[in-house]
Each structure stands twice: as C-alpha cells, then as structure tokens.
C-alpha cells in the first residue's frame, strides 16, 4: 500500500503537535487522544525524537520529518519557524531529505507557502475530510469545498507535493458522496491520499450524538467495502494511498477511548484483502470461461501478497470456494508475478494459465 516498491525506502519521523493552531472543534475530534500526546513538544523534545528515530533508520533511506496532529500553518508564526529551523541542520547534513506538514484547507495562502518553501517543506497534507458541503457543515469543519480547491491549486502551483486526507462515515455522509469526493480528489492531482473511517471518540460532540441516537457509524464491513472502492479509483489514476485507518497507537486502544465505529488495528490490510478477493473472483470466472469449470484450482500470487489473498484464517479462500462451488483452492507462490497480480491454473499445471493484473481488473470491474 505504501507505493514505494522498487524505490528508495521511505521513513517518516513524526512530530505531533496536538490541536495546536486549530481554532475549531470539529465534532469528531479529540486530538489529544488521537495523537497520544498531552503536551506540545518543545524544540529539545523534537530534536531528541529526530535523533532517536535516526538511530534506527538505514543511512541510504529517504527520511522525512512530518509535523502531524495539528494545524501547522495556523500556529504562531514564530513557533512555526522555530520548529522548521530545528530541522535545517538535518537537511544540510543530508540526514533528513524533506519536511511534511499537515494543515487545514482554509489556512493556506501565498505568503505562508513562500515561508514553507524557504524552509524546505516538500509536502503539504490538507485535512479535507469531505468535498460535500453538507457533510462539511454537519461536521463543523467551517470551510467550503471551494476553499479546498483554492488551496490545492496554490500548493500545486508552487510546486509542493499535495496530500489529501479524507474521512468516510461522517454525519450526513453516504457511499455516493464518498465516491464523488474521491473523484473530485483525483481532479486535484494529489501525490498521496489517506482515508480514515470515522470513529466515535469519547468526549467528543460525535460521542454525544451517538449516545443520543443521532449518529450511527459505519460497520466494519461497510467501511472496508467503501475504502476498497475508493482505493481502486485512486489506483486507476496512479495516486498513492499511503494509509487507510487510524494508526492503532496505545492511547487510542485504551478501554473507553473508542466508543463506536469501524476500528481495526489492521484496517488497511482488510481493505487489501477485500480487493484481492474481488480480483481473484474475476480471474477465476475468466478462467472458467476459457478452460471450463473445474472443482479444484490453483491461485498464483507474489509471495508478498499471500496474506492479502488468503484473508484472515483463509476467509477469502473459503468465500471463493463457496461462491464458485469449488472443492479446493491451492495457493501457489509465484516470484515471477508482480505485486497485485492474480493467476489461475489447473492443479496439475505449474504455471498460471490465466493472469489478471490490478489494472486489467479495474477496467473489467467498471464494465
């Protein structure tokens, strides 16, 4: 899912600035719980964090200092510059290659971008969440889709990499709106996307709404299915989805923090498994059309895709057998196959007789 296969290994050094600079309290947000850090890091703490991470990162890696958790460009200007100044020696020594920040779409303008460029910031992630006006209003985001379009254009115009963070399952949201948001996001031409299913965090406005019966979160199955469809849209356009689901940090997993919602510590893996199941289904049907139905088959995948193909406790294989009236599916690890390919063969044939790439699967699926 990272999208860095065959490239230099990429590492983020996360610096969390919880709720710092954000003038709003969105209904789903308790930034202190999400970032698992109660205070704002000072410069000494930040340098200690960078040094600690660098001790574990290979010298040949691409290293990025990433400011997460708050609204970076709305922080006091002096503090912004202090944070960015502290990274400069690492950039000059080439121990760190780039800086990434996250912020709100309505906190970007030309002078801010000039300052960020001067300090070596390469990627700006916008916490967009949705491009539905109705959903943004219901979530108390206090900006409009037009603000997202404007800030995204400025970011791309100034040659920054653009990241877009999306949420599904917000109040007033729907599957159709999520798909529309994904398509509009593609039009913004981001370099990276994150997709987060909405969770009900204790102590938030959304928690109160949920307890009153005014809000119902997505089920895990609904969230996985929606994210899978969005991921395929982004993959078709060669846009990297660098995370699906919140990072399952220690604070987030404490009893009583998550009140409701589709949380799973390996949510992204569940989405990948769902896509592999669908792709294998299409591949097997194509195989039967060409070679005739048989009760036993082989599925061929790259060894690094085996868990995505089998699913947890071989759930995918069991569902495929049931749906296609198969007695047996044997998995063949094929080092010749690229990632995200699925092959099918008879059990007495060593090599795949039919191959289906992810790109071909996406095209067939749209027909």
Write the layout of secondary structure elements.
Blueprint: E1 10-16, H1 31-35, H2 43-54, E2 62-68, H3 77-92, E3 98-103, H4 110-118, E4 121-129, H5 133-138, H6 145-157, E5 161-168, H7 175-187, E6 192-197, E7 200-201, H8 205-211, H9 220-236, E8 240-244, E9 258-260, H10 267-291, E10 296-301, H11 306-310, H12 315-324, E11 328-333, E12 342-346, E13 354-356, H13 358-366
List descriptors.
single chain; 367 residues; 13 strands; 2 domains; hypothetical protein PF0899 fold; TIM Barrel; 7-stranded parallel sheet; disordered N terminus
CATH fold call of the largest domain: TIM Barrel
Largest sheet: 7 strands, parallel
Strand content: 15-25%
Number of helices: 13
Task: Give a verbal description of the structure.
With 367 residues, the protein is an alpha/beta fold. It folds into two domains: 10-265, TIM Barrel (Alpha-Beta Barrel), CATH 3.20.20.70; 274-366, hypothetical protein PF0899 fold, CATH 3.30.2320. It is 40% helix and 20% strand. The chain is built from 13 helices and 13 strands. The protein has helices spanning 31-35, 43-54, 77-92, 110-118, 133-138, 145-157, 175-187, 205-211, 220-236, 267-291, 306-310, 315-324, 358-366, and strands at 10-16, 62-68, 98-103, 121-129, 161-168, 192-197, 200-201, 240-244, 258-260, 296-301, 328-333, 342-346, 354-356. The strands form three sheets. The chain has a seven-stranded parallel beta sheet. Strands 11-10-12-13 form a four-stranded mixed beta sheet. β3 (98-103), α4 and β4 (121-129) form a beta-alpha-beta unit. It starts with 9 loop residues before the first strand and ends with a helix.
């Amino acid at each position: 899912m990272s999208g860095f296969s065959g490239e230099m290994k990429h590492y983020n050094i996360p610096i969390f600035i919880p709720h710092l600079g954000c003038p709003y309290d969105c209904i789903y947000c308790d930034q202190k719980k999400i970032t698992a850090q109660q205070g704002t890091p000072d410069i000494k703490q930040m340098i200690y964090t960078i040094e600690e991470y660098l001790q574990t990162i290979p010298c040949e890696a691409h290293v990025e200092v990433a400011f997460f958790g708050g609204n970076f460009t709305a922080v006091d200007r002096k503090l912004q510059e202090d944070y960015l100044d502290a990274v400069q020696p690492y950039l000059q020594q080439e121990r760190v290659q780039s800086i990434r920040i996250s912020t709100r779409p309505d906190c970007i303008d030309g002078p801010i971008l000039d300052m960020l460029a001067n300090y070596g910031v390469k990627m700006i992630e916008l916490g967009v969440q949705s491009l539905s006006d109705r959903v943004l209003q219901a979530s108390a985001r206090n900006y409009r889709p037009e603000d997202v379009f404007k800030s995204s254009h400025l970011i791309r115009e100034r040659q920054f990499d653009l990241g877009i963070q999306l949420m599904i399952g917000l109040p007033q949201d729907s599957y159709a709106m999520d798909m529309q948001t994904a398509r509009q996001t593609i039009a913004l031409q981001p370099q990276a996307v994150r997709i987060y299913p909405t969770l009900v965090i204790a102590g938030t406005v959304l928690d109160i709404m949920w307890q009153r019966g005014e809000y119902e979160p997505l089920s895990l199955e609904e969230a996985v299915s929606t994210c899978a469809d969005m991921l395929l849209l982004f993959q078709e356009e060669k846009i990297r989805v660098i995370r699906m689901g919140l990072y399952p940090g220690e604070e987030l997993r404490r009893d009583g923090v998550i009140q409701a919602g589709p949380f799973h510590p390996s949510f992204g893996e569940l989405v990948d498994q769902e896509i592999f199941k669908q792709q294998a289904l299409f591949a097997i049907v194509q195989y039967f059309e060409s070679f005739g139905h048989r009760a036993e088959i082989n599925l061929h995948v790259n060894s690094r895709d085996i868990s995505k193909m089998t699913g947890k406790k071989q759930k995918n294989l069991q569902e495929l057998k049931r749906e296609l009236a198969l007695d047996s599916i044997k998995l063949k690890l094929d080092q010749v196959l690229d990632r995200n390919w699925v092959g099918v063969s008879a059990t007495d044939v060593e090599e795949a007789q039919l191959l289906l790439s992810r790109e071909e699967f996406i095209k067939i699926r749209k027909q």
